[in-house]
Amino acid sequence: MTVIVRDLRPDDPRDTEGFARVRRAAVPFMLATAESVAFACTHAHPDAHWRPLVAEEDGEIIGTAQVSVDFESVEPGVGQANIYVHPERRGRGAGSLIVGAAERHLADEGVTTVYSWVFDEPANRAFAERHGYRPSRAAHFLRLDLTDGTLPPLQQSPTGVEIVPGTAFEDDPRPLYELDAETTADEPGDVDVEFSDYDHWLGQTWGHPLLNRELTSVAVADGRPVAFTAAYTDGSTRYSTAMTGTARAYRGRGLAKLAKNDSLHRARAAGLTEAFTGNDTGNGPMLAVNSWFGYRVCATEVRYVRGLG
Fold this sequence. Notes:
The chain has helices spanning 13-26, 34-42, 94-108, 122-130, 174-185, 198-206, 255-269, 284-293; strands spanning 3-7, 51-57, 60-69, 78-85, 113-119, 134-145, 161-165, 217-221, 224-233, 238-246, 274-280, 296-307. It is an alpha+beta fold. The chain has two domains: 3-111, 3-Layer(aba) Sandwich (Aminopeptidase); 144-300, Gcn5-related N-acetyltransferase (GNAT) (Aminopeptidase, 3-Layer(aba) Sandwich).
């Protein structure tokens, strides 16, 4: 009954499915498939020094880690290590082994500050603090039942605004990249991010296997996209919004709400039954929008941070 930590083999379906299975069990509010796990490995930016790790016991994957350098961070030396152990396999030492391997990798790549998301539960927080991490900001997972009739009716677009699916930009997605970059830069968080690589975004974000371009909704005004909600689906009945935002010059007009409402209605019409999203607890405007839709908090994660070296 020995637990070992090793690198994920992205070309081995048993590894990618095992990784996704642990993620689904540990974080049921996030979508994960074997295909999306393999995709993340093969499309990671070289500057991210992406390293997925697994903890294995008697041939069974019981823990996972997504470890990377935050190469788009404005501040140098920042890294991420998000670690999850299957709820039924805790207490075997897998978490501590993965933490050690993740920190050694990040230290070797010059990381001096590492961030990690931790569920807001006493055992999880105690584990992080025993390993030298201190709490920072928090974020909520939210869930919406698309079958209970609480979804608000579709709203009429204001004059000069058109709602189109993401597929309308398949010939030239760069305007969406520019909108995504602008809204991401303003998103609350511990680390300020600036997009700088369109080709990387094109491969990793626009080409993501969970991105549903048909259910992604974009508000267009003055000849360009000004608000959007990006929809992920996993091939079952689950839907998740990966990002929702509005260009700075168009905020305060309800355009993000308009786009998201359109996407949710089309998701329900397509037979999807559960919608998930996540918001920083300091993002009051987006939490208010999601509350209006009927989303309810189903879990909370706390961002923990530790200095390395």
